[in-house]
Amino acid sequence: MQRRVLRPKDSAKARKRGLGRGARRPAGDRVAPLGVPSLALTRHLPGPATSGAVLIPSPVKSYRGWLVMGEPSREEYKIQSFDAETQQLLKTALKDPGAVDLEKVANVIVDHSLQDCVFSKEAGRMCYAIIQAESKQAGQSVFRRGLLNRLQQEYQAREQLRARSLQGWVCYVTFICNIFDYLRVNNMPMMALVNPVYDCLFRLAQPDSLSKEEEVDCLVLQLHRVGEQLEKMNGQRMDELFVLIRDGFLLPTGLSSLAQLLLLEIIEFRAAGWKTTPAAHKYYYSEVSD
């Protein structure tokens, strides 16, 4: 007798997202972004906020739709999704950052990330590559400052963004988590982004958000990506976040079967040390023959 853990429709959705198909990245693993030599993984960025700091990207996880950096299909950073003029602007920023207005480049990337969730998942490595190129060429961090300033502006208006466009809100959370995952200072996540990222995830764990599968999926996906890092930076807030998630899982109404499945999976994922156990993988993502 066949037992299906997921409904056929939900099973297809979950498999498309790649739920639970990988484990934590190996400790100390560092993979250079496309077009950036591995020796360029450490660059000193001058300036008041980053004097003496080493910026290192966090490698991309190879599960839940996040592909390891270096795959040929991702070499163009999705630049082809822009119009011809913007494509040229971004290509120049990657090769010769001093020749373009880097604040404009930062705004272009953020604007497009708020409209295109696929791009928002990959924009972090483009930003990292531009930061590295600028540092190597001029020893400056104009692009990085512009990027963080724009992220702060959108963060301050996050409730208005959510009310205006649920997709834009989900894209923003994806983007800021992507940036948090990539950019490091002295091999540590950027402290300036810890609380904003937490605040976004807390918003996704509110009852009105848990009733929307798009927000539940975003919450779970980002916890798979940056949850372990966030917990190391502030374990108390992670405990508080999972109280909300557990309470949400027990909501009597308003939660779809897929949302319940996703929340249960992330609860067990954290309980297992931010990894998927073979038993959990078999239960959630396989057909079992009894």
TrEMBL record:
Residues 14-24 have a biased composition (Basic residues). GO terms for biological process: regulation of translation. Keywords: Cytoplasm, Nucleus, Translation regulation. Pfam families: MIF4G. One of its GO terms (cellular component) is Golgi apparatus. Gene3D superfamilies: 1.25.40.180. Residues 67-273 form the MIF4G domain. One of its GO terms (molecular function) is identical protein binding. The keyword Zinc does not apply. Residues 1-29 are annotated as: Disordered. Its main location: cytoplasm. It is found in: Cytoplasm; Nucleus. SMART domains: MIF4G. PANTHER family: EIF4G DOMAIN PROTEIN (PTHR23254), MIF4G DOMAIN-CONTAINING PROTEIN (PTHR23254:SF17). Functions in replication-dependent translation of histone mRNAs which differ from other eukaryotic mRNAs in that they do not end with a poly-A tail but a stem-loop. May participate in circularizing those mRNAs specifically enhancing their translation. Belongs to the MIF4GD family. Interacts with EIF4G1, EIF4G2 and SLBP; probably tethered by SLBP to the 3'-end of mRNAs ending with the histone stem-loop, it also interacts with EIF4G1 which is bound to their 5'-end. This is MIF4G domain-containing protein. It comes from Homo sapiens. The lineage of its organism: Eukaryota, Metazoa, Chordata, Craniata, Vertebrata. The gene is MIF4GD.
